[in-house]
Amino acid sequence: MAKGKVQNQQGMESLLDDLRLDGRVAIVTGAGRGIGRGIALAFAEAGADVVVASRTTAELEDAAKEVRAAGRKALAVRTDVAKPGDVDMLVARALDAFGKVDIMVNNAGAYKELAVVPFPDKTLEPPAVMRSSTSRLTDEEFHTVIETNIGGVFYGCRAVAPHMLKRRQGKIINIGSIAGKQAYTLESIYQSTKAAVHMLTRCLALEWAPYNVCVNSLAPGVYNTAMTLGAWRDEKRRQAMLDGVPLGREGDMRSLAAMAVYLASPASDYVTGQVIYVDGGITAR
Description:
Layout: H1 2-18, E1 25-29, H2 34-45, E2 49-54, H3 57-69, E3 74-78, H4 84-98, E4 103-106, H5 139-167, E5 170-175, H6 188-208, E6 213-220, H7 229-233, H8 235-243, H9 253-264, E7 275-278
Parallel strand pairs: 1-2, 1-4, 2-3, 4-5, 5-6, 6-7
């Protein structure tokens, strides 16, 4: 019995080792706050050195300090993922600093909860229109969401792919959303971009599988982040969102980050082309 217990313990230790990221280098976009920051810090805790990227320098420096406090190396690179030149530079800076990139997390995103055109009948207007319904979605707003949410993911994958394909190894995690699967009012452009992220993930997974590069999408559900702060401040809307979650509560950032660690680790080497929902059961309906 004692011998069997030792064997089980050894087996468990080996499994946990497969979830470690020691010696690996990760890039995380949108890492200044919210989901990106949570993932970056989880990677550091699991043993990875982390390149943190976002448009806000102060938030980036704070995130880098937290990575270093976890005992790992960090590099902060101010990046606008809607600009392909910025993303190319981000990957180049990471390679210059660390000599390789093992993990790429395309997380940076933009959110707009707006009507495409004005509603002519006020009695049929959906609740929670966040600006005057006499306005329509502008071209600038449209292009901002498109370029950030799908453009940024595409640019990130394209920038890191030559390095990963040449090395014949790599993990790419694209942050999608339940919004890429389930339709909601006032989110048509945002949701369209997330559906595109899911499909891009699947297509690239097929293209790059022969090179041992795994591409997956992590799709969060209801989380309280800076991007959705407006909705959370409205108690009625907050309760309505929580009522739609089978588990009855908002998402735990720790659980989401743990799934990202799994997708970045050797434990997921046979997982590619998947959209993994961490949503409290919303998409099970």
